[in-house]
Design a protein that fits this description.
Elements: H1 7-17, H2 25-57, H3 62-71, H4 78-88, H5 91-98, H6 106-131, H7 139-159
Helix pairs in contact: 1-2, 1-7, 2-3, 2-6, 2-7, 3-4, 6-7
Length: 161
């Protein structure tokens, strides 16, 4: 059984719906901001993980399948292993780059393009939320990110048809 990455988007929704529990206004704002940032992160990772699984399982991406094939006993040359390790060292970039490849199927290429754009945008927002301490998030901003994640999951669902 594989992990259901898409459920991270549902978790992001719950974090947005119930952002704070405390009574202290100063602590509550920090808690709200923590939940908003966590929601943004979960929205991104829900899409990223689902896209990764799609590339590995549906498109049979060689680099993403190599660890599974190795576990099954398939042997690869040192050059093949080095090439895959180099290509996937920055796995988030790799997944986005793989979605840039054309398939010569206009419908599929359009869905992949939309998915790539949303995933890239969510990634930028997630990095900001993780590393830009001075940013203050509001509910609307996080709602947009969650809606974008749902759009990306819809693209993935259509790609699997």
């Amino acid at each position: 059984m594989t992990f259901g990455w898409k459920f991270y988007v549902s978790l992001a929704e719950r974090l947005l719906t119930n952002p704070a529990c405390g009574d202290d206004p100063e602590l509550r704002d920090s808690e709200v901001q923590s939940n908003y940032r966590a929601a943004l992160s979960r929205a991104y990772y829900g899409v990223f993980g689902t896209a990764y699984d799609y590339l590995r399982d549906t498109e049979h991406d060689f680099a993403l399948n190599m660890p599974i094939l190795q576990q099954q006993g398939q042997v690869f040359t040192a050059a093949q292993i080095q090439e895959v390790e180099t290509g996937t060292k920055f796995i988030h970039d790799y997944v986005i780059r793989q979605l840039s490849r054309t398939t010569h199927d206009q419908r599929k290429d359009g869905l992949r393009r939309g998915l790539r754009q949303v995933l890239s945008s969510l990634r930028e927002r997630r990095v900001e939320a993780d590393y830009r301490q001075g940013l203050h998030y509001d509910r609307r901003t996080i709602r947009v990110s969650i809606d974008d994640a749902k759009t990306a999951l819809n693209y993935l669902q259509q790609l699997c048809r």
